[in-house]
Amino acid sequence: MAHRWQNNLVRNDITPEAVWLNRRAFVASAGVVGGLGLIGAGRARAETLEPNSFEDITSYNNFYEFGFDKGDPVKYAGALTTEPWRIEIDGLVERPGSYALDEIVSAMTIEERIYRFRCVEAWSMVVPWNGFELADLLTWAGVKPGAKYVAFETLYRPKEMPAQRGGSIDWPYREGLRLDEAMHPLTLMATGLYGKPMPKQNGAPIRLVVPWKYGFKSIKSIVKITLTDKQPETTWNMLQPQEYGFYANVNPQVDHPRWSQARERVIGGGLFSAKKPTLMFNGYEDEVAGLYDGMDLETFY
Amino acid sequence: MVAVLNRWVRHVPPWTLYLAGLAHIVWLFWLGETGGLGPEPINALERALGETGLKLIIVGLAITPVMKVARINLIRFRRAIGLTAFLYISVHLLVWLLLDVFLLSEIWADIVKRPYITVGMAGFALLVPLAVTSNDWSVRRMGAAAWKRLHRLTYAAAVLGAVHNVMLAKTWAAEPLTYLAVMIALLVLRLRWRTKPRSGNAGGMGRARQGPEPVGKGMSA
C-alpha cells in the first residue's frame, strides 16, 4: 500500500477496567479502550465519537442466519462454534489455500478503530472495533494482476444457524468489494470489539467492516475470500436489486425506495432522542470520495 | 364445552378489554423508557403497538367466523376489541409522529413519498369513521343496514394495515406475510358467505342485505 491509514483517534480517557486482553492476544498493540475522542482534520470528524455501550452493540444485531429479529442473534448465536476456524482464500491470488485463522491473525497487526456504523435501515452506532486492514491480508496472500474484485462468504452451517434452514435467502450470505475499496486503509477485518474477541452475534470470529458503506456490506463470520475479475453476486442485491446496490455507500441524498436515508436514529438514545442527519459516506467523505470520482452515485447506489 | 365457555364468557364485562389495553400500552412505554424494549425503543414501541393493533383487528374480524364454525359467541366483545385496536393504532401513529419522525416537513414527505406510510395512513383514515360510530347511538341513528355497510370498511383497513406491515420490512419476512394471509383469508370467507347466504344462522355479518335483523347492544361493534 502506498499509504497506511493514519489513526486520528486520540486517547483522552482511559478506563482501566475496560482493558481486556483478547484470548488470542490480538490486541497487544491497542488494548486500551474507553471514552476515546476523535479529533480529525476533516470537518466531518470535528465531533467526538462516543462509542455505544458493549450492551447496545451486542444486543441489537442484524445477523439473519440466526433470525430476522434484532434480538435473535444474541439469543441464538451461542450455538455457533468458532474453533477451529479456517478461511479459504482462492481465485486470483499468489498463495491460494485454506488457512487457519490463527495463522492469518498472527501475521497481522491488530489495531483499534472507532468507526461509525450506519445500517441501511436508518439507524447507527459507534463501535470500537479491533482488527487488521484487509489490505494487509490481501497483500499477504498476494493479489494477481487481473484481480478487480474481492468476494466474501459467510459460514454455511444450518445445524448451528437456524435461519439457514429456511428458504427465503439463498445461503450462504455473500458480499463483495471492488479491489480498490478492499485495499482502502479504512477497510477492516475485525476480530473483536471493546478489546474482547468478536461476540458471536456480531460475526465471530472474523468479519468485515467497511465504515462508509451500509452495514450489510460488512459481512460476518467469513470463511471464504475470493479474488476475481468479475463483480461478485451479493446477497441483498440478489434479493432486491432495485433497493440494495452493489456499492451501498452511505448517502443521505439517495433514498432507499421505501424510506429516507437523510437522517438516522442513533441507537442507545432512549425513547425521546431525535434522529441526526446522516453524513455523506458516513462521515468518511474526505477519505473515500475519490474512489468514486466521476460515478453517478444515484445509478450506482 | 362450548356452552360452558359461552356461559363463562358472559360474566366478563367488555370494558375490561379497554382497561387491559390501556395498561398494556402504559407498560410498553415504561419498558421503552427503562430499557426493556432493547437499545432502540422507539422502533420497538412502534412495532409492538402496530402489531397488537393488527392482531386485535384479526381477532375482531374472526368473531363471526368463530361463531359460525365453533358456535362460540364472543359478539359482545367485538366493539371493545375494535375500539381497543383503534387505541393501539392511534398511539402507534402518535409515536411515529412525535417520537420517530417529528419534523413536520418530513412527516408530510413521508406520507406522500413512502408507499408504506401512505398505505398505513389510508388504513388509519378508514378506521376513524368506524371508531366514531362504534356506539349504540350511531347504530340507532344510521340504521342497522347502513351501519353494517359502513363497518365493512374494517376489511379494507385491515388489509391496508397488513400490507403496510409487509412493506416496511427490509425484505419478505414470514410473520408480516402471515398476518396478510390471515386477513385475506378472513376477507375471502366473508365474501363467500355473502354470495352463499346461509339461513337460520346466528351470524349476522353475511346477511346484511336480507332485511332487518336485530342489532342489539352486543352486535354493534
TrEMBL record, chain A:
Post-translationally, this protein is described as follows, namely: Predicted to be exported by the Tat system. The position of the signal peptide cleavage has not been experimentally proven.
The annotation note on the cofactor reads: Binds 1 Mo-molybdopterin (Mo-MPT) cofactor per subunit.
EC number(s) per entry? 1.8.5.-
Pfam families for this protein: Oxidored_molyb
- Binding residues for Mo-molybdopterin: N61, Y64, E65, C119, T154, N202, R207, S218, I219, K220
Q: Does the keyword Signal apply?
A: yes
Name any Gene Ontology BP term: protein repair
Q: Which cofactor does it need?
A: Mo-molybdopterin
According to the entry, every stretch annotated as the Oxidoreductase molybdopterin-binding domain falls at: 81-236
Group of enzyme by EC: oxidoreductase
* Highest taxon, organism lineage: Bacteria
UniProt xrefs under PROSITE patterns = TAT
Query: What subunit structure does UniProt give?
Result: Heterodimer of a catalytic subunit (MsrP) and a heme-binding subunit (MsrQ).
Q: What is known about what this protein does?
A: Part of the MsrPQ system that repairs oxidized periplasmic proteins containing methionine sulfoxide residues (Met-O), using respiratory chain electrons. Thus protects these proteins from oxidative-stress damage caused by reactive species of oxygen and chlorine generated by the host defense mechanisms. MsrPQ is essential for the maintenance of envelope integrity under bleach stress, rescuing a wide series of structurally unrelated periplasmic proteins from methionine oxidation.
Family, according to the entry, reads as follows: Belongs to the MsrP family.
Protein name (database record): Protein-methionine-sulfoxide reductase catalytic subunit MsrP
State the organism named in the record.
Marimonas arenosa
Tell me the gene name: msrP
Automatic annotation (TrEMBL), chain B:
Function of the molecule? Part of the MsrPQ system that repairs oxidized periplasmic proteins containing methionine sulfoxide residues (Met-O), using respiratory chain electrons. Thus protects these proteins from oxidative-stress damage caused by reactive species of oxygen and chlorine generated by the host defense mechanisms. MsrPQ is essential for the maintenance of envelope integrity under bleach stress, rescuing a wide series of structurally unrelated periplasmic proteins from methionine oxidation.
Q: Which gene holds the coding sequence for this protein?
A: msrQ
Which Gene Ontology cellular-component terms appear in the entry? plasma membrane
Q: Cofactor comment in the record? A: Binds 1 heme b (iron(II)-protoporphyrin IX) group per subunit.
Family to which the UniProt record says this protein belongs: Belongs to the MsrQ family.
Q: Which residues form the Ferric oxidoreductase domain?
A: 65-161
On subunit structure and binding partners, the annotation says: Heterodimer of a catalytic subunit (MsrP) and a heme-binding subunit (MsrQ).
Q: Name one Pfam family in it.
A: Ferric_reduct
BP GO annotations: protein repair
Q: How does it sit in the membrane?
A: Multi-pass membrane protein
Q: Where in the cell is it found?
A: Cell membrane; Membrane
Annotated membrane-spanning segments are 12-32, 52-70, 82-104, 116-132, 153-170, 176-193
PANTHER family, alphabetically? Answer: PROTEIN-METHIONINE-SULFOXIDE REDUCTASE HEME-BINDING SUBUNIT MSRQ
Q: Tell me which HAMAP family the record gives.
A: MsrQ
Question: Which cofactor does this sequence's record say it needs?
Answer: heme b; FMN
Keywords of this entry: Cell membrane, Electron transport, Flavoprotein, FMN, Heme, Iron, Membrane, Metal-binding, Transmembrane, Transmembrane helix, Transport
Q: In its UniProt entry, what is this protein called?
A: Protein-methionine-sulfoxide reductase heme-binding subunit MsrQ
Where are the coiled-coil regions? none
Q: Which GO terms describe its molecular function?
A: electron transfer activity; FMN binding; heme binding; metal ion binding; oxidoreductase activity, acting on diphenols and related substances as donors
Start and end residues of each stretch annotated as Disordered: 199-221
